[in-house]
Amino acid sequence: MQLGGGTTSRGGFAGVELTGDYIPFFRLVKMVVGCGQQRFRGLHCAEGICNHSPIVGYHRTMATVSVHPFQTDDARLRPIHDKVMAQERLSADDALSLYSAGDILAIGWLANHVRERMHGDTAYFNVNRHINYTNVCVAACRLCAFGRKKDAPGAYTMALQEAWDTAATGYTEAVTEFHIVGGLHVDLPFQYYLDLISGLKERFPQVHLKAFTMVEIAFFSRIGKTTPREVLLKLKEAGLDSLPGGGAEIFSDRVRHIICDHKIDGDDWLEIARTAHEIGLKSNATMLYGHVENDEDRVDHLLKLRALQDDTRGFQTFIPLAFHPENTPLQHLPKTTGMLDLKQIAVSRLVLDNFPHIKSYWQMVTPKMAQISLRFGADDIDGTVVEEKIYHDAGATTPQGLRRQDLIRLITEAGRVPFERDTLYRPVVRTETTVTVAV
Ligand code: V47
After folding, report:
1. Taking the domain 123-423, which CATH number applies?
2. pLDDT value at position 17?
């Protein structure tokens, strides 16, 4: 199906080719992501190119049309609108204007436009499980309610067998990802992490192991007396498939001194991410917002990530993380509001023009806000999660996991088309059996 003439290719991301031309208020997007039917049959779909979701019964739209025109009374948003339509990169000043503007619907329109240009109606999710192997941590970050001193009440460290058993608890063949992070435990040798990963790979060869933040990698290099590159190479050899985006917090030194003064600094975080990408490991990136940072700090953080992504193209997904103050030394701070959560998603989508995906992590912002975010720039709501600890220790009232069916419902009721992905955003094709056993 081809709407309009004179189509020009505009490049794309990770299997998504963006093509289109302009007619007023319309942009046409042709999706060429492989679908389940293609994978099963090794053929194109009946339409000639694939426009199916890998979820049986759901079809992705090939062309997404912004039906209502852009409207705003805020003069600062007009030039930003023009840049977005022309696919021009936004500047630091543009990003600051977005943060200070109050017209959330106009900002959302712009972010949604970009999101639809990149992904059409598709909204991604996965079936995953979190494994937090220890909460013992030397860092004592003020932002954190999860970490404990070794002898403190509630401190735990999983023996390797316990960690493997945790992975097996409630495991079904539907699970495609283990998300593995923990505290910085001075007594665990580097070999523990290698064995943890190789043991998981041996037991669950088909599950993607997304493990260890850049902060953990830096810590392993200290205890293993080797370089972060060597650490990453050894972990990769043991079975590590990619890295999550945590630990980035806010790169500004001023803010890091307040919220996480014993953690590696922003430059080190970025350098380790660069190294991971150089050796062929994809990663995500996060930003913790809603504490003592200001708009300039947020913009600085986003621009540093964008600059690194220009160099490496190794980031898959950006996840803005709303600060949960409860049970942390910063519990006097207020929680983020819905407006800020939505604006953060939208600004992220608009500024991070080279990031394929923006995730609204439902655990953090609630399933309801994650659902609404799918119309404010997000294209991903994370996964089933199962047993989240970091946010729940910080007072999150969300459930510890959602069923696959719940995620599909959230997405479809947002008017989006659910697309079950693996960690690398390839379609997950389910047979009737694997759907039945899915969590
Ligand atoms: O690094 C810790 C943050 C992160 C609090 O890559 C807090 O797919 C808010 O990185 N309030 C861990 N945030 C979570 C994380 C993540 C989550 C989902 C998906 C992915 C991904 C990554 O949580 C930590 C820190 O930045 N954090 N304490 C708190 N009190």
Report:
1. 3.20.20.70
2. 34
Cα 230 to middle of ligand 1, angstroms: 25
pLDDT tens sequence across 119-168: 999 999 999 999 999 999 999 999 999 999 999 999 999 999 999 999 99
Pocket of ligand 1 (CB under 6 A): 143-145, 213, 244-247, 249, 284, 286, 288, 319, 321, 323-324, 328, 361, 382, 390, 394
Q: Does the pLDDT of residue 3 top 90, yes or no?
A: no
Cα separation, 103 vs 74, in Å, equals 7
Angle at 36 between CA 34 and CA 38, to 5 degrees: 60
pTM of the model: 0.88
**Which residue has the CA at smallest separation from atom 8 of ligand 1?**
244
Q: Which residues contact 150 (CB under 8 A, 6 or more apart)?
A: 136, 185, 187
Identify which of 340, 364, 380, 390 to mutate to test ligand 1's pocket (most ligand atoms within 8 A of the CB).
Answer: 390
Amino acid at 75: A
Give the Å distance between the CA of 169 and the centre of ligand 1: 23
CA dist., res. 321 & res. 140, Å (int): 19
Per-residue model confidence (pLDDT) at position 392: 80
Give Cα 252 distance to the centre of its chain: 21
Give, in order, the Cα–Cα distances in Å from 202 to each of 33, 86, 206.
30, 49, 9
The Cα–Cα gap between 17 and 213 comes to 30
Compute, in angstroms, the gap from residue 321 CA to the centroid of ligand 1: 6
Measuring CA to CA, which residue among 233, 322, 234 is closest to residue 280? Answer: 233
Nearest Cα neighbor of 416 from 382, 377, 375 is 375
Whole-number Å distance between alpha carbons of 195 and 186: 17
**What's the CA gap between 275 and 231, in Å, rounded?**
11
What tokens appear for 293 in the block? 């940072």
State the Cα–Cα distance between residues 59 and 69, nearest whole angstrom.
26
- Name the residue at shortest CA distance from atom 29 of ligand 1: 324
